[in-house]
Amino acid sequence: MNLVNYHTKDAIAYVAMAKAPLNALDMDMIAALHEAMDRARRDSAVLGVVLFGEARMFSAGADIREFDAPDTLRPALQELCSAIECLCKPVVAAIHTCALGGALELAVGCHARIAMIGSRLGLPEVSLGLLPGGGGTQRVPRLVGTTQALQLMIGGKPIDAAQAHAIGLVDEVVTSDLLASAAAAVIRLATGASCRVTSRLPADVSSESLAEIERRRTQTARLSTPAQAAIVECVDRAMKHAPEDALAFEWRELIKLMHTPQSRALRHLFFAEKEAARLSTGAAPEALVPIRRIAVVGAGTMGSGIATCFLAAGFPVVLLDVADAALERGRDAIQRALDAGVRRGRWSCAESANFIDRLTTATDLEEAASADLVIEAVFENLSLKREVMQRLGKIVTHDAILATNTSTLNVDELAAATSRPSQVIGMHFFSPAHVMRLLEIVNGRATSPRVLATAMAIAHRIGKQAVVSGVCYGFIGNRMLEGYLRETDLLLLEGASPAQIDRALEAFGMAMGPCRMLDMSGVDVSARVVEEAQRRADVSRDGAYRLVCRRLHAMGRDGQKSGVGYYRHDGQKLLPVDDQTTLYASWAAEFGIARRSSISDDEIVHRCLLASINEGFRIIDERVASREGDIDVVWTNGYGFPRHLGGPMYQARQWGLPYVIARLEEFAKRYPREPSWAAAPLLAVQAAANETTRSTA
Ligand code: NAI
């Protein structure tokens, strides 16, 4: 099978990348493109070349797997782009659907670019801790100016063809006949207009550009992301050095970045995310339940957010609740979310109006009858949810899927209430549901594979990162959060302050420390979960378990909403609560917990994280999660775990499992009353295997 197809017509050579599905620019593809360009050069009947991608897209860029062996790589894409520039015949890139990373660099190495309307163009390398190493840091600033180029490379966000045209990244946007337009451009360049060679364009050395470089330099030094800092330095070279020197510098920097732990971790997550969502793209459409209409039951915080997700993906939605007032509040919340999307440029005013036009509301559950997917988001109450699911089971069509957004209840029990359990699944959204990317898909004991595949595909359609979880208390994410918060409260009783705990975990990289998080999401919400957990027969905890959370709630200190919780809230400011030390000391005394004058940040980070990680190994052992990567995807997308550390399980592997075991043993010795410090059996086995491999290596 050819990687590149070549044919000529009317004095034009058409060079097509033909490696489904993404036209990945790996070493073989680059070699094949070299050959095709050379063939066009040698053919005297050929005036110029149209370079395009067959099937789904122009190209999604480099094959990231090749980055695992950086020392075997050559600057092949740089060389290809230089060869194209020196071809003596015009090469025009005809872009459809997307040109990302190396693919955009390749296009920028051509003499002109024509893009199909709606295509996405971008340099997202930074999201993998890398930089564009195919000459992008040199050519893009020459084409669009330093400021725009830095924005594209440091932000990493793709732009659409119209925006790309506005900044000069593409020469023309067309609505049809892409190849014919590209051919016309080749003829124009070959017969009259001079051929622009991007790397020979004058560098953008305006005073604004120099100032922009300095501004970005200060910014990236503060954020300390190696990739962003290296991009700034490469663009600086583009202004001050000969193109050959600057290209060599770019390549050296890229290889250095490939070796960094940050890039390795980000690449791990890149693959983990694809793997976690694999069912969503792998299942054949005819195998799925057709989903045309959605019903959401419960118009509260979650219901309105979930409805927003589906409306914004173009689905008609019926929102159901028991009272008109609740429906009005829900509709207002949806309108506000859509307005915010307009402000952020996610959709236009007209699109937003179309979305809301497809929303209907009703108080009669029978209105769910025509929906293919019903998601219930009523109060977290078992008997209420059972009743709602049971009624829905009688209302909807035979093929319809019934999903529950419960965060703690047993999906199998809810499924049993419907008398059609194979059609029931959990879809656990995170708050705010229209913003958070993570969606745990809870695969019940009886859930049919077709229903699971449909739920995954729907998650993909509404732009969510899906991860499959088995049924258990808290699923993957919240189950691991339990230990993290348990240790937070205990550390407070032992003498750490909320500010110190948050500072330590935020310095580690967590987006938000646990005390701030609890205050924001509501201490009451957490306290109710704790009380429920204590009522459950299988959770035996001593009285100090999550004591701070429970006591604060009992005092009405529910966090941000009540002005005081773990912190005192003064507008946006978080201040220490006046009586926190006295209170925590007296609660500690009540349960015989010794206070210490100082607790190290290292202890805070390790106790909170290892409590979660240990549970993560139990989750794998019980097959609640299929892979460690799935857990990493959950925690980086839903719990603010730093992406550049790859997720909690990846981090555990970086620390080394024997080290993890040693720290667990240390905590187990210090807290014999806490059964959770015993190492998960799977962790113990794997740590021992690690030790053996090491000693025999
Ligand atoms: P909420 O209290 O904001 O909204 C619940 C809504 O359900 C209310 O509008 C209520 O009127 C409605 N409702 C009650 N009984 C009903 C019935 N029989 N028929 C139709 N509507 C009914 O609650 P929230 O926070 O939206 O939570 C809903 C579900 O989502 C719960 O199961 C919760 O555990 C889950 N969840 C909540 C998250 C959060 O952060 N709030 C995150 C993930 C899941």
TrEMBL record:
SUPFAM superfamilies, per database record: 6-phosphogluconate dehydrogenase C-terminal domain-like (SSF48179), ClpP/crotonase (SSF52096), NAD(P)-binding Rossmann-fold domains (SSF51735)
Subcellular location: Peroxisome
Domain 3-hydroxyacyl-CoA dehydrogenase C-terminal: 474-568
GO molecular function, one term: isomerase activity
GO process terms (BP): fatty acid beta-oxidation
Catalytic activity: a (3S)-3-hydroxyacyl-CoA + NAD(+) = a 3-oxoacyl-CoA + NADH + H(+)
InterPro entries: 3-OHacyl-CoA_DH_NAD-bd, 3HC_DH_C, 6-PGluconate_DH-like_C_sf, ClpP/crotonase-like_dom_sf, Enoyl-CoA_hydra/iso, NAD(P)-bd_dom_sf
Lineage: superkingdom: Bacteria
CDD domains xref list: crotonase-like
UniProt keyword annotations, A-Z: Fatty acid metabolism, Isomerase, Lipid degradation, Lipid metabolism, Lyase, Multifunctional enzyme, NAD, Oxidoreductase, Peroxisome
Every 3-hydroxyacyl-CoA dehydrogenase NAD binding domain range: 294-469
Pathways involved: Lipid metabolism; fatty acid beta-oxidation
Stored PANTHER family: 3-HYDROXYACYL-COA DEHYDROGENASE-RELATED, 3-HYDROXYACYL-COA DEHYROGENASE
Protein name: 3-hydroxyacyl-CoA dehydrogenase
Naturally occurring in which organism (per UniProt): Verticiella sediminum
